[in-house]
Amino acid sequence: MLTNLIETGKNKCTKYWPDRGEPMKIGHCSISLVEEIKYAFFVVRKLSVHKVNTRNERDIVQLHYTSWPDHGTPEEISFVQFQRAVEKRYKAGSPLLVHCSAGVGRTGTFIGYDALLRRDKETGRINVFEFVRQMREDRMSIVQTQEQYVCLHKALACGFIGSERTTQLKDLDTKIKQILNGNSPKNQQTLNIEFKLVST
After folding, report:
1. Taking Cα atoms as reference points, which of 62, 151, 58, 147 lies closest to residue 98?
2. C-alpha span between 141 and 30 (Å, rounded)
3. What confidence tens digit (pLDDT) does each residue in 115-149 have?
4. CATH class of the domain comprising 6-198
């Protein structure tokens, strides 16, 4: 989950999980909050979903990133750490659901980051421009803003470096300048040109 319930005074998402000790009934299912752990910029919730009048029960882990502004971009290092938390808890073959408020900007940026990291591990090569273009064939305007497109590149730069796959803070400025072509005018920077192409 990449949105907060309320942002800048507007409802962005309905709370679909209960508080601890207050099970929520939806249709034929009862949902209970088993555990909630709060970190600096995300929350991990373990939910138990029980189908009423049966023995069918399923545990669901929800990771809720709380530091991403609507139409904006997150701080890249916290974004990288959040994706690692998702990856650590993800079980291969299990469904992974990603959502924000509209399913475009934040959702697309996260899916792009996560998928491109996996592709890099499999093939050693990625093409951000082509990947975003392909995603936009299925969901118009995914990775909604130029700032989110740049954020995707910055997050990948942070994620690819070091044994922990994170750039040290002291090296981050240099890596970002390399991505943004140093002193080029903003409208001539590679990422700006790519974003305009992918938006057409």
Report:
1. 62
2. 36
3. 999 999 899 899 999 999 999 999 999 999 999 99
4. alpha beta
Q: Which of 152, 149, 157, 194 is nearest to 173 (CA)?
A: 157
- Three-state SS for 62? strand
What angle is formed at CA 116 by the lines to CA 36 and CA 45, rounded to 5 degrees? 5
- Name the DSSP class of 107: H
- Non-local (6+) Cβ contacts of 22 within 8 A are 33
Model confidence pLDDT, tens digit, residues 54-66: 999 999 999 999 9
Are 191 and 176 contacting, i.e. CB atoms less than 8 angstroms apart?
Answer: no
CA distances from 136 to 49, 109, 140, 142, 147 (A): 33, 12, 5, 6, 17
Domain map (residue ranges) of the chain: 6-198
Q: Which long-range contacts (CB under 8 A, 24 or more apart) does 131-136 make?
A: 132/108, 132/198, 133/198, 135/108, 135/111, 136/198
- Give helix 146-160 / helix 76-89 axis angle, nearest 10°: 70
Q: What angle do CA 30, 34, 36 make, to 5 degrees?
A: 125
> Catalytic site residues?
100
Q: Which helix (H) or strand (E) holds 25?
A: strand 24-26
Alpha-carbon gap, residue 109 to 8, rounded angstroms: 21
